[in-house]
Amino acid sequence: MKESLVRNVFSKVASNYDIMNDAMSMGVHRLWKDHFIRSMAPARGAKLIDVAGGTGDIAQRFLEYQDQNGDSTSSVHMVDINPDMLREGEQRFANTKWQSDKRIGFTVGNAENLEFVKDEEFDVYTIAFGIRNCTHVDRVVREAHRVLKPGGRFMCLEFSRVSNPILASLYDMHSFYVIPKLGELIANDRASYEYLVESIRKFPAQNEFAQIIRNEGFTTIGKGYENLTFGTVAIHTGYKF
Questions:
Q1: Taking residues 93-121, what's their average pLDDT?
Q2: Over the stretch 41-58, which tens digit does the pLDDT of each residue have?
Q3: In whole angstroms, how far apart are CA 180 and each of 88, 167, 185, 216, 223?
């Protein structure tokens, strides 16, 4: 039920997804994603699987980061359950050096069952602003553990909980009133953006999600996450040892 709903929502928003991200976050999502990649600091030759990869902005940042650090061998495999979103990603990489060098690949697939991926195949697993739309979050994390090599890293960038009550009330006002209105004005689709806001509220809080990550076999350092912008989003990291 949730899978079909999510597929329908993202098919509707695919062509406007990047524009809406800028409008909803006032461009701050770009800073979050840049910090996400810097925090990863991947090794030379790293193999990344980017799940719920959507329009490819995480994959592009990863490859740009590696190129800037003198690495022309790292690669990304993008996975998304929605073919319309993945098509946007494919268009982003069309006629790029990464495509011609076969450093980027694409597969339509479900994060809960990456049946096309062998055990212990990747160095890093990323999922940015996608795991909250999955039906069984624990199964997603379990699959991430399976496909990572020993020593590999799970990294999730996701909307989270603002603890300060004053800031939380402002955040709620922005989420429940401003974001759906922006969806209506920019994408002519209020309902899809109302769903996206509701999905944020239903996602586990930081400590709860960090425990899910540990329960599925990962080791976390400290509390296991880093809050950004007062907890509006959080980076969760787990290591496969």
A1: 97
A2: 999 999 999 999 989 999
A3: 22, 19, 9, 35, 33
pLDDT digits (tens, 9 = 90+) for 146-173: 999 999 999 999 999 998 999 999 988 8
CA 42 to chain centre: 17
3-state DSSP call for residue 44? coil
Taking CA atoms, 114 is separated from 138, 144, 147, 148, in Å, by 14, 9, 8, 12
- The Cα 138–Cα 149 span in angstroms is 19
Distance in angstroms (rounded) separating the CA atoms of residues 83 and 192:
17
pTM: 0.93
SS (H, E, C) 45-101: CCEEEEECCCCCHHHHHHHHHHHHCCCCCCEEEEEECCHHHHHHHHHHHCCCHHHHC
Helices (H), the chain: 2-13, 17-25, 28-40, 57-68, 83-93, 97-100, 137-147, 165-173, 179-186, 190-202, 206-215
Q: Which two tokens stand for residue 62?
A: 């990863």
- The closest of 144, 33, 19 to 88, measured between CA atoms, is 19
C-alpha 206, offset from chain centre: 16
State phi, psi for 162 to the nearest 5 degrees: -85, 125
Average pLDDT for 72-77:
98
